[in-house]
Design a protein that fits this description.
With 545 residues, the chain is mainly α. Helices cover 48% and strands 8% of the residues.
Length: 545
Amino acid sequence: MKLSKQDQEFRNPKVFYPDPKSIDLDRVLINLFVLLRCGGARPVTRGRPKASVERVEYHVQQLAGLQGVYGLADYPEIAKGWLETDIFDLVNRGTSREAVSSLRPLHLDAHKIRVARHCRDYNVADAIYALLEFGERQTLNSLRDYLDHGRDVRTSRFDGHTKLDIDTLTVLKIVEGLPDLHPSADRVATAPPTCLGQARVLCDDVQRLLAYKDAVPRPVMIDYLKTMFGLHIAIYTLRLSGQLAGWIRDKHANPTCVECPVHGAKPRPFEGCPYQLSFTVDMSGDFRSRMAQMAQESVSTNQGKLIDLIRSLFTMNQLLRYAREEKSLGIPDAPADVLRLLEDPPTDFQPDFRARLKQLRTDNESADEELPPEIQAIFDSGLAPFDIFIELVCHIRQKHHLDYLTEFIDKLFQKNSDSGAMVQGKSRGNPRRWHLGGRLLEVFVQLAVLKWSDLEGKKVFYSEPVLIEDFLVWLEARYGFVISGSQLGVGKSPVTLEEHRAFRDNVRALKDRLREIGFYDDLSDAYNAQTIRPRYPIDERKGAQ
């Protein structure tokens, strides 16, 4: 059955910013840099770049000809290999169709070399910008200032005195003399995120990371930011599946969401949130263990909710469409408001969808061919016309979106990478399971050891060791990752003796991982001696005095 574009609308910034596809987080960052430079607007469209811009050899020649750059012209092959590996993001790498996508996201000006058709992010950068814009505006400004560090605002060139690593300095030299972008009137963050609490927690995480701006090497900091942006968009997507489904089931927005109590500065940010998430994490490397089985079941449960997200998005989009077309009803074009169409439907609401169903049937039935049996069964289900319409759209489009959403979540959680929260083997007996990679665990520790105090209305951070038990509670309270059994009672069910042993071994595996990455030494069996220590001692209070 063929559907019109309006009938199958899925991505809607008022509800869900991204268009779920397979994405690359480096390219997401580059597109986020464009929005940061243009103040949240899309840039004025420029002509298609010259074909030479897509070749690394061209940039080797350009860089070698700049004042103050020596040696590249003498060793062009070595220079080309270095740029390909560390400076440029390439598509079709190693083939005859190899081309430049963009520079690596090491500086805010890295967006100046960006081939749009090779650097698509499917509106994920829009989602991140919206979370930053509506979560806490100051975080957005602080992030922009950090990413622009080392550039002279008057000349748009390297300022000549800021200490930068060689890769970031190379990016600034490569874009030297290239024109700045100019914003258009097309703004991206036109509607607040449906879950404002997730935006606030992301902003708090970014603030915590920026506390390390003078201690952590810039490429490492960029990797930290990329990891956290991907993680938050993934968690936001999974949280949205429960949130929208709950709103539609209740036929109104949850009162807790209307007055969202979630703030990243709280010890337990999502306390009181009716849509909390829980991910049972396996910290070992044995996919046959009981802990791994529990982590696999947890992934399956959470990904099963993606079906609810698909149905909910189709439902919300049709309600928003109806509210736009029937302006005389005076219903605001906002997700929380259009739900009154379900609670108290207007007289013409169901007849309108009955007419749409009739038109769909007319357009898809031919004189010599009837509708497929499964489609006919939906028409004959006896449901209300609106519900039949949603069932039809879901039946036709659900598999398409479910496949892409699954791939989308895999990329955001960076599956099978050291910065990832998910792993999957190649055999059928080794499906997806929650598992924290070493780099992701490092980021979590860097965030967890930071405390803050208020100084003249500003949050200032300082680091101190944390107990292992406190770290486990912090992980679950902030991100939903459960390692030692639920400490908060979220999704809690009776634990068997076998599961208790599995959680105990899981904590032991976590300690081993922390020891490997240099954050933990158990000098004693005493409870108060089992602490995670900061790698980079931070005390912004000293700098503020």
